[in-house]
Amino acid sequence: MRTPNQLTPLGAIASGLAAGLVGTVCMDTVRFLRQRRSGGERNPLRWEFASVPTWQEAPDPGQVGKRLIEGFTQRELPDAAAWPVSTLMHWGYGAANGALYGVIAGSLRKPPSAVYGIPFGALVWISDYITLPIAGLYEPIWKYDAKTLADDLVPHLAYGAATGTVFRIMARTGTRTRPNG
After folding, report:
1. DSSP string, the chain
2. How far apart are CA 111 and CA 127, in angstroms?
3. 130-151: buried (b, 16+ CB within 10 Å) or exposed (e) per residue?
4. Membrane spanning segments where (predicted)?
5. Ramachandran category for residue 37: left, alpha or beta (phi over 0 → left; psi -120 to 50 → alpha)
6. Are 82 and 57 in contact (CB under 8 A)?
7. Distance between CA atoms of 53 and 55, rounded to whole angstroms?
8. What distance in Å separates the CA atoms of residue 89 and residue 68, rounded to the nearest whole number?
């Protein structure tokens, strides 16, 4: 039974989706600032929505999306689909993980602390190193050096921190009760 302080299941999912999108922005901000410090693209929108002309150049989320769509439709996707599929998968993955966070955190009796998002970000990070080697897109985690793993972990922690914070704010504002009268 829900207490007055808990979100409805749909509210928890919706809040989690929104929090996951904000978390994705924060993750990408960390990555953008890194590449900018190293002399890369200076325009954040052009960097975020950079052209992906072929499947060989598609990032891992796009590769996963390609496999899912081709497996379902039994048709090969053209290179022209590399950019929209990659973009949709990246943002969809962030939102879906946020929804998962919403379901977990929203099932607690009291709104969760914002810091709960940080271990969640680490969980999302480690799940990549479990699922993507199985898919043949990553090497097993033990084949990466500590610097590479840490460089990949930091944006995921930013994702988790932002997701947890936004969810906390949404959970608190979404559970206010009306005064009687």
Report:
1. ---TTSPPHHHHHHHHHHHHHHHHHHHHHHHHHHHHHTT----HHHHHT----SGGG--HHHHHHHHHHHHHH-SPPPGGGHHHHHHHHHHHHHHHHHHHHHHHHHTSSSPPPGGGHHHHHHHHHHHHHHHHHHTTSS--GGGS-HHHHHHHHHHHHHHHHHHHHHHHHHHHHHTPPPPP-
2. 25
3. eebeeeeebeeeeeeeeeeeee
4. 12-33
5. alpha
6. yes
7. 7
8. 10
Please give the torsion angle defined by the CA atoms of residues 69, 74, 80 and 83, in that order, rounded to the nearest 10 degrees: 10
Whole-prediction pTM: 0.89
pLDDT in tens, 61-120: 999 999 999 999 999 999 999 999 999 999 999 999 999 999 999 888 777 888 999 999
Cβ neighbours of residue 92 under 8 Å, at least 6 residues apart? Answer: none
pLDDT in the model for residue 4: 57
Q: Are 83 and 52 in contact (CB under 8 A)?
A: yes
- On whether the CB atoms of residues 30 and 24 are closer than 8 A, the answer is no
